[in-house]
Amino acid sequence: MDLKALQFSFFNAEIAWRYLPDILQGMWMTIQLGLAVAATGLALGLLLAIVRALRVTPINFFIVCFADILRALPPLVVIMVLFFAFPYVQMPMSAFTATWLSLSLVLAAFSEEIFWAGILSVPKGQAEAARSTGLSWLQSMVFVVMPQAFRLTVAPLTNRVIAITKSTALGSVVGLSEVLNNAQSASSNAGNATPLTLAAIACLIIFVPVVLLGRWTETRFKWTH
After folding, report:
1. Range(s) of the domain holding residue 160
2. What CATH number is given to the structural domain containing 168?
3. For the chain, how many structural domains are there in total?
4. Model confidence over 21-35: pLDDT tens digits?
């Protein structure tokens, strides 16, 4: 084993220092994108689940189709359609917007189904009892049904958010300057794999806390399963 060659190719301090700013810039972009996707996707998924609870057949048909199609499509396909096809209908998008919107829609599709399952798991008597006290349908949903449903869905939602936010690396396909894309460019320019090592460390820094949070939530709410 040639340890010197391994060190030169993957742990070269001079190259690491030279390209560290690019990796940090990409790391910040990844964090911003991940937070935006999580916030938008969860909010849209929750909204769709609540609207679905109204049980209006035409609307529910649209929501079910949306959820099934977006869950079936690979996120990369959605990103490429939004980025490359929408300019033909006078709706061009930046790489960040296309990646954010695509991953948000995918997360919304999954989270809607998770929230809906949580709503269905709450006994109907809970909502009926809330309505009998004078609460409106929306009030009973917000203050009675959803708090109980959320306890049942927080663990699977956390796992889904982790899976989707890690897909931010797919933005590199449309030129988004996230951490992996910057590392690949730096590695190509340097003729050395050290920037990829930095990218791997950056991903660990970003996602290990998220994974630990997911493990904590599973432990915290395991009694509800």
Report:
1. 3-224
2. 1.10.3720.10
3. 1
4. 999 999 999 999 999
